[in-house]
Amino acid sequence: MKTLFVPLIIVFLICCKPTEKTGSVAHLENTYWKLSEMNGMPVITPADAKEVHIVLASADGEKQLRGFGGCNGLGGSYTLAGDKIKFTTISTKMFCESRMDVENFLTKVLSEADHYKITGETLELFEGNTFLAKFESVYLH
User: Fold this and answer.
1) Which long-range contacts (CB under 8 A, 24 or more apart) does 105-113 make?
2) I need a surface site. Which of 28, 42, 47, 75 has the fewest CB within 10 A?
3) Per-residue pLDDT of the chain (141 residues; tens, 9 = 90+)
């Protein structure tokens, strides 16, 4: 019985070993990008607040930016050339004391960013060689 049992275990282990996760790769456009890192620190969304995020989409030949900065809605446009990106943003101007640091950070990043990199489900924005911010894709159900 033992001589049959050992080969069965070996076959089971070979057949059932975990495979490398292929996962999906997010696309720059038509993805909900949640701000996940600010100045090297994780961005934590308070329980009673909306997530800070951006969504980039092409509509009728125009590239549109929309999102939320933590207090105010964001809108605007962007241009692309390869991995080069340039944002033009507009927003409402309410003041929310507890979230203005995150919102000011996001609007500064969007005004300074000149290129991006997507790795898996992560979007990183840069100005030259300087890393500015990290976003994670969120899939809405």
Assistant:
1) 105/38, 105/39, 105/133, 106/35, 106/52, 106/54, 106/69, 106/70, 106/74, 106/133, 107/69, 107/74, 109/133, 110/54, 110/65, 110/74, 110/76, 111/87, 113/85, 113/86, 113/87
2) 47
3) 444 434 333 333 333 333 333 455 889 999 999 999 998 899 988 888 899 999 999 888 899 999 999 999 999 999 999 999 999 999 988 888 778 899 999 999 999 999 999 999 999 999 999 999 999 999 765
> Which residues are CB-contacts of 12 (< 8 A; sequence separation ≥ 6)?
none
- What are the structure tokens assigned to 109, written together? 């990043």
